[in-house]
Amino acid sequence: MLEHVLNGLYYGSILFMIASGMTIIFGVLGILNLAHGELYALGAFCAFSIVGFVAGQVAAPTGPATTIVFGLVVLAGSLAAAAVLLPVGGALEAAFIRPIYDRDEVYQLLLTYGLLLVLTDVMKFVWGPSPVDVGVFSAINEIPTTELVGFSYPSYNVLVILIGVAVFAWLAWFFDRTKTGRIVRATAINREMSTAIGVSTDRMFTLVFAIGAFFAGFGGAMVSIGPSSASLGMGLSWLVLSFVVIVIGGLGSLKGAFVGALLVGVSSRVVTPYYPQLELAVPFLLMVLVLLVRPEGLYGTWGEIQ
Amino acid sequence: MSTLGPGSDTGRGSDPLLEVSNLTATVEGFEVTHGIDLEINEGEAVALVGRNGAGKTSTFRSIMGLTPVANGSIRLRGEELLEMRPELIPKRGIGYQPESRDLFTGMTVEENFRLPIWTAGEARGIEDEDAVVEDVFDLFEELEGRRDAEVQNLSGGQGKMTAIGRALALRPDLLILDEPLEGLAPVVVENVKSYIREIIDRDISVLIAESNASHVPEIVDRMYVIERGEIVDSGDPEALSSDEEIQLLMQGGGE
């Protein structure tokens, strides 16, 4: 049982990294980014290339000390892979999404869907049609963390859960405490009024999209380093689940995305081993339940009185 | 010395501070003002008086670059604002309190004062952020105790003051106040009036929209009367607001 809960938390952490960007982009830009799953997939492919390269530069781990070094190198590589998404996200926003803010939602959905298809083809062109795997997962698990408490569970998954919590803490700090974060919030609350105090909303939108892309890419990197591999189409199921998460949490709410992701992650991973046929149904059942009780989701977005 | 004076050098040039000429603003494709002409000189306090829907808010929004303009020109010290990206207008020295207040909810009063300094403080020559914030609190004494309150929990009067204070925090040369007295209890109206007079005493030029002409003579040097998107009269506020025809117009009898 504990293992299933941990699996759920691992799954939820990855889900949060994708859903957080989606919900922030929706909250600030008002755009539902259907290409967000592909940004996650792009992060996974970049991690395959970058982490594969840097891991090849250091010796494979032979003991705890070298494993820590190896793990740090892999972590740095995955951050670098996610960092590729910063300019990619920024450029996508500036070139394609900026011209359609004033258009109907239908145009925005069509455009981001188009980006989804184009990004998939770009990845197919660069990395080919078959799944690719970095192959560092077993090496990282050389460090037996959970065995210290008399329990066997991959250290890597524990690390990802901790990283998920750290990402949430960082985002919460960024939007609560930093000047830039609070300017972004002001932009989300009232675009016109923030212009009237000197905010370049264009710049804020690009920044938000780039940050969202970064964390989606980071989530992708975590997955492709982990037990799974990077593959075309990997983004699609996560896109749908992220959508479920942000509807449960409340569109535009960061805290909602965190709670929603963990709820979806844990409930589906705890139920699936016993009732495998419910794997896909559980998140949606959860969403239906939340919508029946709180149609606006668990939490409100910035500026809404909670 | 107070840090709340105008941020720019207010040396008097030959140009007026703000010169609006032949302004035709549009809302959703419809012309809502027809050739508005306005002038505000350095250090002057001017009112734009007219009924609801006469075009006051549209004129102000045009000045801030928030509403499309079909025709005309808006110059600040001779510089055309219509060709400027709207976020540069506050940086050039115009502070704006919109009619609907539009405070940044979920944030405190103090954060609402700091935000304009973070975004425009450098352009406005603000070196000591804290000093400016303290000066705004000194002016609006009754906000001092509400400093850490989130703005959605303020009373109507406090909300209005926060909106004015936020505009003031970027050390504007020109402060635009859209119906600052509207919807306030009589006692609060007197308070806000005295705050506005204090602001004017600090050499900040002020442009106020009012739908109640009787408030105006106590505050401004000069007033314009706007009706159906056109300036129909202008001059001394004392004389104009007691003018029978203007009074009829304001009551809706001027049809």
Explain how this protein is built.
- The complex is a heterodimer of chains A (306) and B (255).
- Chain A is built from 12 helices and no strands.
- Chain A has 306 residues and is an all-alpha fold.
- Chain A has a single domain (2-293), classed as ABC transporter involved in vitamin B12 uptake, BtuC (Orthogonal Bundle), CATH 1.10.3470.
- The mean pLDDT of chain A is 90.
- Chain B has a single domain (18-250), classed as P-loop containing nucleotide triphosphate hydrolases (Rossmann fold, 3-Layer(aba) Sandwich).
- Helices cover 31% and strands 23% of the residues of chain B.
- In chain B, the strands form 2 sheets. In chain B, strands 7-8-9-4-10-11 form a 6-stranded mixed β-sheet, sandwiched between helices. In chain B, strands 1, 2, 3, 5 and 6 form a 5-stranded antiparallel β-sheet that branches.
- Chains A and B meet through α7 and α8 of A and α2 and α3 of B.
- Chain B: It comes from Natrinema versiforme JCM 10478.
- Chain B: Belongs to the ABC transporter superfamily.
- Chain B: Keywords: Amino-acid transport, ATP-binding, Nucleotide-binding, Transport.
- Chain B: GO terms for molecular function: ATP binding; ATP hydrolysis activity; branched-chain amino acid transmembrane transporter activity.
